[in-house]
Design goal:
globular, alpha/beta, 16% strand, eight-stranded mixed sheet, Rossmann fold
Length: 303
């Protein structure tokens, strides 16, 4: 995943540079742009969740507060590499593998959103973070809401990434049962169809294949149980209990119901990114990082 994500970042930057050159005459008198500082070194670590499961994380930068990134269903902390490279120049950044994913332990039997939330709490506590912005993609949006509920007074805000489009919405049980039953009968085939539906026409075929192969290598027992838990999580109740600001960076593939969300978080704001499916941080990393920075700065003040 790292190779492909970094390639996309470089291509995006090259494209932006090419556009700039075509619109602005070159001038030998123009000063050369200053180089951006490199991200500080990263440290890998392990925390122990409430049930004893080992939770892997990567900690980049320093400070008593951090941006804490939580991946979505059947993915891992490697999906945030383009964001770490950019944001860690200015913020302490922590990325987490939830139990059953990436380098974390897989011996758990409770794959609920509450249990995943405790994974995040364990890392925040181990790193002694006094404040955090919790950033969650897809199912990770539910997880960070639950973690915020369990970390009163320490969460500056929650940022959902293509998630929490309508916190009161419940998918029909029949649709979820059909998907879960399909995964139980033919995990590989059903998973591939499901993951491919998360992209849009025109998505990079190589990216679609790499993400599909990666997600569908998740242990079926973990993936099915986690998806079942996500289908029943009450995000509205979680936000009511957490009492923290909410921002989202969402694609337009699924519409966001800001009016409903503001019933639970009056200050809710959504930043939309065009031309992506469910993985804007992979598909449009340069534009995504800009919008994510806006969301972070709205919660903390500009850097």
């Amino acid at each position: 995943m790292r190779r492909l994500v970094i390639t996309l970042v470089v291509l995006g930057a090259l494209s932006a540079t090419a556009c700039s050159k075509s619109e602005t005459p070159s001038s030998s008198a123009s000063p050369a742009p200053s180089a951006k500082p490199t991200a500080p070194p990263s440290r890998d670590g392990q925390s122990e969740s409430a049930d004893g499961t080992s939770i892997a994380y990567t900690d980049t930068g320093s400070g008593d507060g951090a941006l804490v990134f939580v991946h979505g269903w059947a993915t891992n902390r490697g999906y945030w590499e383009a964001q770490v490279e950019d944001l860690a120049r200015d913020y302490r950044v922590v990325t987490i593998d939830l139990a059953g994913h990436g380098d974390s332990g897989k011996e758990r039997t409770d794959w609920s959103i509450e249990a995943f939330g405790k994974d995040v709490v364990a890392v925040v506590n181990d790193l002694n973070l006094r404040s955090a912005i919790l950033i969650g993609h897809s199912m990770g949006g539910f997880v960070v809401v639950e973690a915020a509920r369990m970390l009163p007074g320490r969460v500056v805000g929650v940022i959902g990434i293509d998630t929490l489009h309508d916190v009161e919405m419940r998918f029909p049980k029949e649709q979820y049962d059909e998907l879960l039953n399909g995964l139980g009968r033919d995990f590989a085939g059903t998973c591939r169809t499901f993951v491919q539906s998360m992209f849009i026409e025109g998505s990079d075929p190589e990216l679609v294949k790499e993400v599909t192969d990666d997600m569908c290598s998740t242990p079926p027992e973990v993936a099915i149980a986690a998806l079942r838990a996500a289908s029943t999580y009450d995000a509205a109740a979680g936000l009511d209990a957490a009492k923290v600001p909410l921002r989202c960076v969402n694609g337009t593939h699924f519409p966001t119901n800001a009016e409903t969300n503001r019933k639970h978080v009056p200050s809710f704001q959504v930043y939309t990114i065009e031309g992506t499916g469910h993985f804007p941080m992979l598909e449009r990393p340069v534009e995504f990082n800009r919008l994510l920075r806006q969301a972070v700065e709205e919660l903390t003040g500009p850097k």
